[in-house]
Amino acid sequence: MPLDLALEVFLMEAAVHRSDLAEALTGDGTLTAAALPACAVVLQVFWPALAGSAGTVPPVGTAIRLTGTALTVEAEWDGTTWGAVTSEPAVVLSGQDESLLLFALGRLPLDHSGLTVTGDHDLAVRFKDLVPGP
Fold first, then answer.
1. Residue 95: beta bridge partners?
2. How many domains does the chain have?
3. Does 18 have pLDDT greater than 90?
4. 40-97 residue pLDDT tens
5. Partner residues linked to 117 by β-bridges
6. Contacts of residue 121, Cβ cutoff 8 Å, sequence gap at least 6
7. Model-level pTM?
8. 74 with 68: CB under 8 angstroms?
């Protein structure tokens, strides 16, 4: 793994676990603004590997996009793996960067007030089945 990517992973892990601890202790499990880009990079880079363990797949050509205020993370299922998006997404989840990343990382529910779903709501509900980690 390239050192630059390893540093992004370390930053994401530290930020998410700090957020988990703060949520458990105070109910305020936010991510720091400085950690948001690293969380997005790790999610984008590792999406195919994370999804590979899911065991469930969507139809070929299904694209999912998470669009925040400054960050976008997306992937499309090509029948073998998740990769570059070549078609319109079947579902777009939008909101503040922090809310989207906390959802994608399994820390916020889909019905959180900071998230909006456009398109295939059932696919959005299945997101953590399709992309179970981290």
1. 115
2. 1
3. yes
4. 999 999 888 876 555 678 889 999 999 999 999 999 999 888 899 999 999 999 999 9
5. 93
6. 91
7. 0.89
8. no
Nearest-angstrom CA–CA distance, 57 and 130: 6
Greatest alpha-carbon pair distance for the chain in Å reads: 43
What 8-state DSSP symbol labels residue 119? E
Token pair belonging to 36: 């948001």
Q: Which of 93, 91, 82, 2 is nearest to 48 (CA)?
A: 82
Q: Measure the CA–CA gap between 106 and 124, rounded to whole angstroms.
A: 13
The whole-angstrom separation of Cα 69 and Cα 96 is 6
- CA atoms of 116 and 104, how far apart (whole Å): 13
- Nearest in space to 134 (alpha carbons), one of 2, 18, 9: 9
Beta bridge partners of 19: none
CATH of the domain at 34: 3.30.1050.10
Contact between residue 44 and residue 105 where contact means Cβ atoms under 8 Å apart: no
Domain extent at residue 120: 3-130
Half-sphere exposure of 90 (CA within 13 A, CB side): 18
Residues recorded for the chain: 134
Beta strands 63-67 and 72-77 are: antiparallel
